[in-house]
Amino acid sequence: MKLTGKKELIEIIKKKIEEEGAISFKDFMDIALYYPDLGYYTSDKEKIGGFGDFFTSSEVDKAFGQLLAKQFAEIFYKINPKEKFQIVEIGAGKGYLAYDILQTLKTEYNEIYQKSEYILIEKSKYHIKTQKELLKDFEIAKWVESLESFEDNSIEGVIFSNELFDAFSVHIVEKQNNILYEIYISLKDDEVIEIKKEASKKIIDYFKELNVELPEGIRAEVNLIAKDFIQLIGRKLKKGFVITIDYGYPSNELYKEYRPRGTILCYHKHKYSENFYQNVGLQDITSHVNFSALKYFGEKAGLNFVAFTDQAHFLINLGIMDIIAQLQENDDYKSYERINRLKTLVLPGGMGEKFKILIQAKNVADIDLESVKILPYLSQRYKI
């Protein structure tokens, strides 16, 4: 298979392969997604919504942001911050979710709004521009380039993300004859070829720490960036909660024989494929999140486990059914149109089951939250 997509990116990948002989899939993914101004996430290409490549829950209906604002209001009273209540959103996309949260806080929880600071962590120049235009009426919104900009133990409030960890570049590994190999790519006659090299100590230690024995013959992803990032969050948070919204599973469900190719998928114009080497720089590349890893490595950085749930239970506990009931009382076309959108957020088999929420806390005495009052049945997919 030949590399197709942005010519400039392909030349950069080819040059790196020429210099090094072969590059890891992780390095390839990093260039395809994050190379300055050319990568999928760093370019000005439309990514989210009808004209993009995928939808997020915040794109479906404003209720998603409204209910998150309700959750943040509960957290405000739980931690009773001495100074500003900080809401830190990492990877805010076009800013729609931030808008819905801020609008709700301003109109329904104004006392909290006045004592808050909404911080968007964003690297994309394109997204920063669109976010600033959208959020210009919210004086508490501010932008920071990276989480490293904060001092350790300086954030009081909540750090949250929606579909962030699935976009981190990952290593691909495969176990053969009881030996763990990492997948590298090279070129032969302009065709992509995969090369297997024995996995590094970091990757081997990752599985050992999580007590995971990878089944023979299957491929899987190792997200070392996620491991480091959740620990960075733990170091920066002084007091409060961490809410991670994404799709994935615990270790005992993620690494199964019935996923022999792992979980990496590409999204391009609302179609998914496993054609990683096509549409380079023009398509999203994602992998399922290992929530057991976020829990384990978060605990090493002082983040205590609160709950692991799915989006359906999370939103129902926060009152999405009350919103639907009110819309039914309106009995008009626009209300029923919204009801159909809201259903997509909670229905089993769709977003309601696909997306999971991991909640962690640090230095909080009372960690009981309304959003996790009722949890899903404790099947393998929720034993974290």
UniProtKB/TrEMBL annotation:
<dbReference type="InterPro" id="IPR029063">
    <property type="entry name" value="SAM-dependent_MTases_sf"/>
</dbReference>
<protein>
    <submittedName>
        <fullName>SAM-dependent methyltransferase, MidA family</fullName>
    </submittedName>
</protein>
<keyword id="KW-0808">Transferase</keyword>
<dbReference type="GO" id="GO:0032259">
    <property type="term" value="P:methylation"/>
</dbReference>
<dbReference type="InterPro" id="IPR003788">
    <property type="entry name" value="NDUFAF7"/>
</dbReference>
<dbReference type="GO" id="GO:0035243">
    <property type="term" value="F:protein-arginine omega-N symmetric methyltransferase activity"/>
</dbReference>
<dbReference type="InterPro" id="IPR038375">
    <property type="entry name" value="NDUFAF7_sf"/>
</dbReference>
<keyword id="KW-0489">Methyltransferase</keyword>
<dbReference type="Pfam" id="PF02636">
    <property type="entry name" value="Methyltransf_28"/>
</dbReference>
